Amino acid sequence: MGSIKFHLLNENKQFIFAHRGFTSLYPENTLESIEYALDDIDIDGVELDLTFTKDKKIVIFHDKNLERLFKRSDKINELDEKCLRELDITGKIGLKDISYNRKYKIIFLDDLINIIEKYPKKIFNLELKYYSHDLNLLNEFKNIITKNLQKFDSQIIYTSFNLDLIQNFSMNSPNYKTGMLIHKQEKLVEFLKKGTFVDYLILNKNLDLSIINNKFYIGVYTLNSNKYEDEDPNIEANNNIDSVILKNDNIKIFIIDY
């Protein structure tokens, strides 16, 4: 199973999320993969991916297209729900090129709701993936998600690499927990210039952290690794330079090795 370990050094807490479910046994983001992971008492929650179909349905899927999982060139936002539900995930596919001997299905928002209801004590880290520049469509994407998942706000953290998306989401849905995923230095600078409007800032460990004020929580988590370390040299070297004053004193900052 690929796992993401969140560790808040200041609070001595660690949270473990199954990355797209239990992908060592089942295809990523499938019902079987997600529920198998959530049945593990040592797992705090799962990290899943949400995006839009052609007919404006929320689908739990990571990639822009079907190439990796289905050996097809179709883009996910060019197909409707009916077409996607008819597809079978089978054969040698997945994060680790594992061979699966039975057929599995893509799941949608209604399936996710059933899962969240079944696991009320688990946390769902939902990464929002949006591949259009249409602002109206962006708002519709956000509204569909918030309308259907609002009663689960205590269980959900919404994250994204898309700055406009997560800013829109955070500003218009202040009751929800949000996180910004950043893996490039210029994106970190861009984010800081706009102000802090998220609860979590999740950074690639190779970024220069000297522009981040030292009064915020610094954490470490590792991706798909059995080795865990409490300290990261990037933190000690960079978290004491007071060059940017962030507005939100409660923001949590995590470092990740993508």
From TrEMBL:
Top-level taxonomy: unclassified sequences, metagenomes, ecological metagenomes
Domain GP-PDE: 14-258
Molecular-function GO term, any one: phosphoric diester hydrolase activity
One Gene Ontology term from the biological process aspect of the record: lipid metabolic process
Species this protein is from: seawater metagenome
PROSITE patterns found in the cross-reference section: GP_PDE (PS51704)
SUPFAM superfamilies the UniProt entry points to: PLC-like phosphodiesterases
Protein's name in the database: Glycerophosphoryl diester phosphodiesterase family
Pfam family, one: GDPD
Entry-linked InterPro entries: GP_PDE_dom (IPR030395), PLC-like_Pdiesterase_TIM-brl (IPR017946)
